[in-house]
Amino acid sequence: MSIEINNESGVAVDEASLQRLITFALDLLHVNADAEVAIVLVDEAAMEQLHVQWMDEPGPTDVLSFPMDELRPGTEEHETPAGLLGDIVVCPQVAQGQAETAGHSLLDEIHLLTAHGLLHLLGFDHADVEEEREMFGIQRDILVGFSMEEKRRGGTRRR
Fold first, then answer.
1. pTM for the full model?
2. What would the pLDDT profile of 28-80 be if each residue is shown by its tens digit?
3. Among 21, 83, 85, 106, whose Cα sits 20 to 30 Å from the Cα of 27?
């Protein structure tokens, strides 16, 4: 599995935990171990530029996803073929405000945004109530399962 992380945000982020999260999620969703994904952490100015360019919306946002090979989750019997999933772009500065509002750590918020972005790469959306219920349910399963896995392995979480 190729997971590239590029932190251009100026904010220190536990990149190893992001790698573990993506690995956990792709395994849970039966995506081929040879799939490739990139996570780019950017500052507010860069995120605003991407948000305007690709979504035609002003201001920075928390996460954007740029799917490539249109891969979808697999099953226990048939895992997703190898391919390029795409890029997840996260803005830690926007995430910080959201983390404070939600009452959890910046790392928890970045994990949430990364899982959310990954699901978009895999074709999930939340345009209607049914799609939202499905996507957010899987997102919750990823985050809860990952948190349990981190506790089992003795991983530390910043609060």
1. 0.93
2. 999 998 999 999 999 999 999 999 999 999 999 999 999 999 889 999 889 88
3. 106
Residue 126 is assigned to a ligand binding site: yes
- Phi first, then psi: what are they for 11, rounded to 5°? -110, 130
30 annotated ligand binder:
no
Q: Are strands 36-41 and 84-90 parallel, antiparallel or unpaired?
A: parallel
Nearest to 40 by CA among 67, 15, 72: 15
Contact present, 93 and 60 (Cβ < 8 Å): yes
> What gap in Å lies between CA 64 and CA 79, rounded to an integer?
25
Domains and CATH numbers, the chain: 2-152 (3.40.390.30)
Main-chain phi, psi angles of 83, to 5 degrees = 170, -175
CB 18 within 8 A of CB 110: yes
Q: How many CB atoms lie within 10 A of CB 20?
A: 18
Between CA 51 and CA 26 the distance in angstroms is 26
Task: List the one residue out of 16, 28, 37 whose CA is nearest residue 110.
Answer: 16
